[in-house]
Amino acid sequence: MDKYCAVVVIPTLNNDTVFDVIKSVRDLGYEVIVVDDGSNPPVVKPEIDEKIHVITHSCNLGKGAALKSGAKKAKELGYSYFVSMDADGQHLACEICKLTDVIDYGDDTIVIGARDFEIDNVPKGSKIGRSISNFWAILDTSCKIMDSLSGFRLYPISILELSTKSDKFDWEMEVLVKHAWLKKQIAETAVQCYYPKAEERVSHFRKWRDTVSIVLLHVKLLPFRLLFFKGFI
Fold first, then answer.
1. What is the tens place of the pLDDT at every residue in 125-166?
2. Does the pLDDT at position 223 exceed 90?
3. Residue 136, class by beta-carbon neighbours within 10 Å (0-12 exposed, 13-18 middle, 19+ buried)?
4. Most exposed residue of 1, 126, 154, 231, measured as fewest CB within 10 angstroms of its CB?
């Protein structure tokens, strides 16, 4: 797929690092949608670049809500796909092409950038949390998923048609599950990432609390999964 068939959506909350992320993406020629999810004061000014579209939430609604806002804007701009990137600098713009290379234009596939955790400064808690999340993701989707917590993904705009209830970090998992329930594909590709030292790290993902929220999402979805595979829904 032509890599420029996707726009890049970057949700942010009080992250000054977002400017470096935006620059790295624009330097490669991609159009950008920044969703400022309740920063106080707002981080990104709306008039910085005609190829940088800024959406501002007046209060913090959650990462899922920010990505949905970005997806709606991507559809409005005429894109069929968007790439989600975190604003903390963990995801690398040069790796976006690895996501777009996985599918042909017209595919209705979610592509996950499976991060290499065999690098410096990856917290042990992140590795444990990913393993727990992967177990539930595989159980609920029947797909082999190695990095279900990665926020570096290529989404088709069709995910807007899914009936999702979550607005926080667990939205990213709910989308995978409900996409898979419709017999649509989930693919993965290995990507490099960057983890700064602990004292330099900026992240709003609370490793244990948000991981527990994701597990609880699976527990809530489990009865519906059983009904789905029994053919009742």
1. 777 888 888 988 888 888 999 999 999 999 999 999 999 988
2. no
3. buried
4. 231
Phi/psi for 126 (5° steps) reads -65, -40
Compute the chain's Rg from CA coordinates. 17
pLDDT surpasses 70 at 202:
no
Q: Scanning the structure block, which residue is given the tokens 């490669």?
A: 28
Instruction: Give the pLDDT score at 212.
Output: 64
Sheet with strand 6-12: strands edge to edge:
52-57, 32-37, 6-12, 81-84, 153-156, 110-115, 186-191
CB atoms within 10 A of CB 187: 16
